[in-house]
């Protein structure tokens, strides 16, 4: 499977690995069946996953060799250049690096194991789980939030004290500065 993004939050991947290890052993098939990975079939019949990159990497690291995919589109008849343009136009690509900078399509990793850590993506996931914003169907929502935090929380703070960075990020997520982001939940009612 080919990734359609450059980065993941490795803290998020570790959380998914823990959830996998903590599930009942007889529930593996049910878990994987309930977490199908959406993909587009691209040139040469290669599946390009468009979501659940964290889960795919976690399963790979846990030694799971097969997962179920849900095919969203079959575009294997397109030449690679047209395929990439189509994927980009449908917001099925996120070619941004760990600094939030857009890269060339050729910079996308060729394999899930080559995804790069973006600690701000992990922060965005933790903020959502802590109630800072709501889950949204908008593609790559967590990366939009990651960029929002990237502009407001110094990387040193994030690297040295994730908990403190999270405490700082939660009120930022509820601030008016974040109102343009998908899933914004508004000011905390206790404010």
Automatic annotation (TrEMBL):
InterPro entries (alphabetical): ParB/Sulfiredoxin_sf, ParBc_2, UCP029669
Pfam family of the protein (one): ParBc_2
Recorded superkingdom: Bacteria
Name of protein: Putative ParB-like nuclease
Biological classification of the source: Bacteria, Pseudomonadati, Pseudomonadota, Alphaproteobacteria, Sphingomonadales
């Amino acid at each position: 499977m080919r990734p359609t993004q450059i980065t993941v939050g490795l803290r998020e991947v570790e959380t998914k690995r823990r959830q996998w290890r903590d599930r009942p052993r007889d529930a593996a098939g049910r878990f994987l069946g309930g977490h199908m990975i959406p993909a587009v079939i691209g040139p040469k019949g290669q599946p390009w996953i468009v979501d659940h990159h964290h889960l795919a990497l976690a399963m790979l690291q846990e030694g799971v060799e097969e997962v179920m995919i849900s095919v969203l589109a079959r575009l294997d008849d397109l030449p690679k250049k047209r395929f990439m343009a189509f994927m980009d136009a449908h917001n099925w690509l996120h070619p941004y690096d760990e600094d939030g900078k857009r890269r060339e399509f050729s910079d996308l990793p060729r394999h899930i194991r080559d995804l790069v850590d973006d600690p701000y993506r992990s922060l965005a996931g933790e903020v959502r789980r802590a109630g800072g914003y709501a889950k949204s169907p908008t593609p790559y929502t967590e990366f939009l939030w990651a960029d929002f935090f990237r502009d407001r929380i110094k990387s040193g703070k994030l690297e040295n004290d994730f908990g403190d960075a999270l405490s700082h990020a939660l009120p930022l997520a509820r601030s008016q500065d974040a109102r343009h982001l998908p899933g914004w939940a508004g000011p905390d009612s206790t404010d």
